[in-house]
Amino acid sequence: MQNSDPIWDHVDTHRDDLIALSDRVWGMPELLYGEYRSCAEHVAVLRDKGFTVHEEMAGIPTAVMGEAGEGGPVIAILGEYDALPGLSQVAGIAEPKATEAGGAGHGCGHNLLGSAALLAACALKDWLAETGTPGRVRYYGCPAEEGGAAKAFMVRDGAFDDVDAAITWHPATMTKVDEAQSLANTRMDFVFTGRASHAAAAPHLGRSALDAAELMAVGVNYLREHVPQESRIHYAYLDAGGTAPNVVQARTKVRYAIRSTTLAGMLALNERVKKVAHGAAMMTETKVDISIMSAVSNMLGNTPLEEAMQAAMDELGGVPFDDADRAYAAEIQKTLTPEDIAASYRGNGMEVREGEPLCDYVVPRTAPGSKMMGSTDVADVSWKVPLVQARVSTVAIGTPGHSWQITAQGKSPAAHKGMTYAAKVMGVVGRMLMTDEVLLARAKKDHAERLAREPYICPIPEDVRPPLVPRPVAAE
Fold first, then answer.
1. DSSP assignment letter at 66
2. Of 16, 94, 287, 296, whose CB is crowded by the most CB atoms within 10 A?
3. Model pTM?
4. Per-residue buried b or exposed e for 271-298, using 16+ beta carbons within 10 Å of the residue's own CB
């Protein structure tokens, strides 16, 4: 890889500082809406690099925006820094070993995600100042992607109202332009309230909330046969009512995740699941209260931006891994199954290649990958403004999402190379949007045409607030 684009040089100027940020965030894993230390680290770097900082975006204490430049188009680069529960892991080894029993860990690479996005913003800031080009670059530090839907709340609050286009990325097993496929997702809580009684002496006087929750599960399981095959419904008991079997449980709380390939399909499926809950309450003579915890839309693509990002990747080439990177990735692959490795290739429309621990090339946009069956709050930004997302290789081919293996690789030299590559790609696309009026106009036209076919409806009701958590005393 030879430097030929000025953005690449500006990325290299700030690379070491932002790699250090990524490693610090890796070492302080925080869960959704509790990312106080991680957010503070990003704020400190934004201030140090000369950005104008706006904190508590949309009233969320761990959301931040940094802006630089004047006039021209507003280009947003989106970052994240939340971790996952139960994925604590020692870095740099190829065996499961927690740093803290039961602790959180960056098992989705968001320490890299936020740092690379900020690195791209730093490069664009310097380039704008150097060239005198009109335009503003914004770094959005977004919390709670893992189930908290912070970006959807931010969209609803108007945080992106004056943005012209948005760019982001995600750590991955392979490098490619994202296919903009995800599932719309609602996380809905069902609280059943009954009447406690002695389960042996007076069972007839009790009304079991636990029975209601279990009957709901049965009903939803029958419902699964009669929904589109790409839809998904999952659930978890948040409160099963207690541990005493000789008491009729008076209260249970269960959370359902309801997913569909389209926003309209998810909203319709939500109503069907609610009917099942009401039926369970009727059968058990209990009461059910239903509330939405969070919700996100499905991703909206943008062909002009995807073509521009593909051109930026093709010019840059693949991530420049070395033999040491490949050796560590090969050790990680020994912890995986052949099915894990094959799934990486199939998901990216590629034939399985033997003896390939890392992806050091760019997957063509024409490769027919399988649909991504996860959900992300990036999707709601894609409905608000034209958006493009990169997938960049930072881990061994076959590494499953949300795994200890991702946490273990989160501070590796290969991960650092991947995040630097991602910053260069995003920075170049940002520069193209700042200077190519035709590209930006085409991106906006594509976006408007998609919205004309299906207008955006925020999946989070107006009265629902983000499920914020208090600032820890140690973070004061």
1. E
2. 296
3. 0.94
4. eebbebbeebbeebebebeeebbbbbbb
